[in-house]
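Hi R.,

Here's the chain you asked about this morning:
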Amino acid sequence: MDKVLSTMKTRCAWCTSDPLYIRYHDEEWGVPVHDDRVLFEMLILEGAQAGLSWLTILKRREGYREAFDGFDAETIACYDKKKTDALMLNPGIIRNRLKIAATVDNARVFLAVQKECGTFDRYIWSFIGGKPKRNRRKIGEPLPAQTPEAEAMSKDLKKRGFRFVGPTICYAFMQAVGMVDDHAAECFRA
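And here is the predicted structure, written out as tokens:
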């Protein structure tokens, strides 16, 4: 019955019929996140998506959580070559050496931002003034790939040493953590 009801809801056009995608759309996408660990997780996962579909990453999300110690930035920042080599053999994640190395480097920079700003949350939400930006587009109306805020975020993250944080990745991250709510006006989540 629950499956029948979930298929009767009007959702954003990008949401496929895959149950994992539906759950992500219905429960996470566009919901404001202020937990530093979750923000770090989503930044890493969005970077891992580069060149791939988001569904590919969602299907490996639990594998990422296990492989990267629950996205504990302090632990990841201490990974050595032996650990990164082992990650290259892990079928539960995208085995891309550049993305794995970027995750380790990003953990180190993430910790530096926390130290400087008190929390990563305070830093990252400053790009939109601390409050979610709500857009209400019609179903099928194209979403932007990037915005001036995402470009500013990308530029600052790169300046600090983050990798895999281009403006398109930053905008997807902003949507994922609810900094931007791009649910279509007709979507039941709007």
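One quick note: The domain at 31-181 is CATH 1.10.340.30 (Endonuclease III; domain 1).

Cheers,
M.
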